[in-house]
Design a protein that fits this description.
This protein is of the alpha/beta class. It folds into two domains: 161 residues, Medium-chain alcohol dehydrogenases, catalytic domain (Quinone Oxidoreductase, Chain A, domain 1); 133 residues, NAD(P)-binding Rossmann-like Domain (Rossmann fold, 3-Layer(aba) Sandwich). Helices cover 29% and strands 26% of the residues. The chain contains ten helices and 18 strands. Strands 3, 5, 6, 9, 10, 17 and 18 form a seven-stranded mixed β-sheet that branches. Strands 13-12-11-14-15-16 form a six-stranded parallel β-sheet, with helices on both faces. A three-stranded antiparallel β-sheet has the order 2-1-4, with no helix packed on it. Helix 3 crosses helix 4, helix 3 packs across helix 9 and helix 6 crosses helix 7. The relative contact order is 0.15. The structure holds zinc ion (2 copies). The site of one zinc ion has 6 residues, from helix 3.
């Protein structure tokens, strides 16, 4: 079989490798399709702080169970599955309290260890989720959607006015998840009209361009004096978090879901004097994956046209180059086996 390895920044290698043997406790997955994520792009650019080259990338998979170890229960040959790619120790305090998404020894498949840019993958069933009748695109979108669900859950958005800053892949899915989890009204902001148009197509209540307006004005125009109970930063730039702090009202909750690449100087009294809660948010837990699959199946999340391009795994270099050159017009690019 073939594995696709990111050898160094901008350098892929397709390597021939034997199909993995499975133990009695594992299943063998045939990988049908994987999504390319912003974190894959960060590795591609050599800017990912927490990984080392070479790595077989890929953490957003649509796969078919093609062999089942004799002690495995709950999965059979032919099942459509997706993978929750966190490998955690199970022993640290966060793991023992059920928050393995912030395990002190967390490793992610496709980042710190081999991922799914390959034909076959041996894995324990504890990492798998049934994706039932979801198609290849939707199945591979469950992982980023679970980030959205995790973020909305972290913000405790039910019956709240919610503003999501950034309407890209994650911002869109966070905004849709907030609606799916019962937010009263959801506003998404961006500076790209095409991303905002797509957010509207996905059923987000308000999608507003902040190129010529402050976030504070947009939030006030949308929600009135109540402003935003919850603001979720998916843009993750110094400018975005500063505008979020300016737009927060006393006792707003701010969730940080985007990956900040540089340190930011912030005015602490804005937080202290207004009793603002700033919550970090990392990935997802099992409940978020399950909710994501359910929401994708029952139509609470709009995933139609979310995938903007498909490439074959053999054209991996072309796919990454395309994303680099067209980031304004790309929602999600898939690689097919
Ligand atoms: Zn991802
Ligand atoms: Zn742990």
């Amino acid at each position: 079989m073939k594995k696709t390895c990111l050898k160094a920044p901008y350098q892929f290698e397709r390597i021939e490798s034997p199909v993995p043997e499975i133990s009695d406790e594992q299943v063998l997955l045939a990988i049908r399709q994987i999504g390319i994520c912003a974190s894959d792009m960060q590795m591609y650019h050599g800017l990912h702080k927490y990984m080392t080259f070479p790595v077989v990338f890929g953490h957003e998979a649509a796969a078919t169970v093609c062999k089942v170890g004799k002690n495995v229960k709950g999965f059979s040959e032919g099942d459509n599955v997706t993978v929750e790619p966190q490998v955690f120790c199970g022993e640290c305090e966060p793991c023992r309290s059920g928050f393995y998404n912030v395990c002190e020894h967390l490793k992610v498949m496709g980042v710190h260890m081999d991922g799914f840019a390959c034909d076959y993958y041996a894995i324990k069933p504890m990492y798998l989720h049934h994706a039932y009748d979801l198609n290849d695109d939707y199945t591979a979108l469950i992982e980023p959607l679970a980030v959205g669900i995790g973020s909305a859950r972290r913000g405790n958005v039910k019956n709240k006015t919610v503003c999501v800053v950034g309407a890209g892949t994650i911002g869109n899915l966070v905004a849709q998840s907030a609606k799916a989890l019962g937010a009263e009204a959801v506003l998404v902001t961006d500076i790209k009209d095409n991303k905002l148009d797509y957010a509207k197509q996905c059923g987000i209540d308000y999608a507003v361009n902040t190129l010529d307006k402050t976030l504070n004005d947009v939030i006030t125009d949308t929600f009135g004096a109540r402003k935003a109970d919850v603001i979720i930063d998916c843009a993750a730039t110094p400018g975005s978090i500063l505008s979020v702090l300016q737009a927060a009202r006393p006792r707003s909750v701010i969730v940080i879901t985007g990956n900040f690449k540089v340190p930011v100087e912030i005015e602490i009294p804005l937080i202290q004097r207004q009793e603002i809660d700033i919550l970090g948010h990392m990935m997802y837990r099992r409940i978020d994956f399950e909710e994501a699959i359910q929401a994708a199946r029952d139509g609470r999340i709009h995933l139609k046209d979310f995938v903007t391009q498909h490439y074959s795994m053999g054209s991996v270099a072309e796919a990454f180059r395309f994303i680099d050159e067209n980031s304004d017009n790309v929602m999600k690019v898939m690689l097919r086996n």
